[in-house]
Amino acid sequence: MKVRGLQLVNYRNYKELNLSLADNINIFLGRNAQGKTNIVEAIYYAAVGHSYRTNQETELIQWNTPGGSVKLLFERLGVDNTLEFTFSREKRRRILYNGQPIRLKELIGAMNAVLFSPEDLFLIKGAPAGRRRFLDIEISQASPAYYHELASYNRLLLQRNTLLKRIREHSAKASMLEMWDPQLAASAARIVEKRHTAVKKLNMLANLMQRRISDNEENLSVTYEQSGTEGQTVTADLVSWYNKRLRESLENDIWRGSTSVGPHRDDISLAVNGIELKAFGSQGQQRTGVLALKLSELEFIRSETGEYPVLLLDDVMSELDVKRREQLLQFIRREHIQTIITATDEAYFPARRIGQYYRVAAGRISMG
């Protein structure tokens, strides 16, 4: 997977940009608030269909303009492709894949990218939602069918929760849940089975990365934590198990007005040498764990799709110590992964230049 070019029109602080990228490492240098992150954001947006910085697409459009666009030229398995997104303050966005209009569910998996930003350093000690999001994005890029299943589950969950509130308010009967619960249980089982399989592979890959980064001193384990298993025996038939748990938690769910068991409440746990990282790991161990997790994400997608995704490193070099920076750059260069890096200081990189360097100032980019 290689990004060949990026074209922006009225995107953030770029009035017009036509940028070509090198196959290996691309380093964007400049002071803060000059437009470096906007480059990474645009590429990530093309991969997953949303920004990691805002939920409002109008914020992507340059101030005082009616609309903007992002066009990405990329190569996948030796074939050239284009993705184009058109934004408007008045209309819904439009997505074109090789010139043909598509919907979001058809976009996922077309162009794969892994993002590593400073916020990811809180992945281990943050809320479970962040770890679920990490896992879901990773699996979705490797398997678009999983993304479709997840979207279906979330729709069913919303409908069930709405009905639970109506039952609590005595405006609906509990018997109406009989229509939704079997569908929700079946969808939950498919999602959790896929997650379990992915986490098993991720556990192996992340431990390999952890050992490399720590000079074979640390073993990292990644395990899937399924909600509702406390004091419960999880049977091989997950559909039956979820149906049973939904019945058992019905009274509590009605009182809460929300569903208390399912993949939307699951988590992943990370431990180093048997010690839980979230509760007992040092800051250094947690950062090494996150780095190992991100590198294993690259390997996971490669194993599922046949090639590495594009790696996006947004201002993380300053957050890593010298040893971790060296390990990261060595891995990227050894595996020939196309990488887009943003940084404020060239001193974060080896004295002997690696890859292509760009200077960013006030929405303008120059080679250098």
Word description of this protein:
The chain is of the alpha/beta class and 368 residues long. Helix content is 42%, strand content 23%. The protein contains ten helices and 15 strands. The strands form three sheets. A six-stranded antiparallel beta sheet has the order 2-1-4-5-6-7, with helices on one face. Strands 8-12-13-3-14-15 form a six-stranded mixed beta sheet, sandwiched between helices. Strand 1 and strand 2 form a beta hairpin. The mean pLDDT is 94.
Gist?
The chain is an alpha/beta fold.
Spell out the key features of this protein.
alpha/beta, Rossmann fold, globular, six-stranded antiparallel β-sheet, six-stranded mixed β-sheet, 368 residues, single chain
Low-pLDDT sequence parts: none
The secondary structure category is alpha/beta
Strand fraction: 15-25%
Shape: globular
Q: Determine the fraction of residues in helical runs and give it as a percent range.
A: 40-55%
**SS element count, helices:** 10
Mean pLDDT: 94
Biggest sheet descriptor: 6 strands, antiparallel
End-to-end C-alpha gap: 25 Å
Number of strands: 15
Strand order of the largest sheet: 2-1-4-5-6-7
- The CATH class of the domain at 1-112 and 310-368, by name, is Alpha Beta
Q: Please identify which CATH superfamily of the domain at 1-112 and 310-368 we are dealing with.
A: P-loop containing nucleotide triphosphate hydrolases
CATH topology of the domain at 1-112 and 310-368: Rossmann fold
CATH level-two architecture of the domain at 1-112 and 310-368: 3-Layer(aba) Sandwich
Q: Which value, in Å, is the CA radius of gyration?
A: 22 Å
> H/E order of the elements?
EEEHEEEEHEHHHEHHEEHHEHEEE
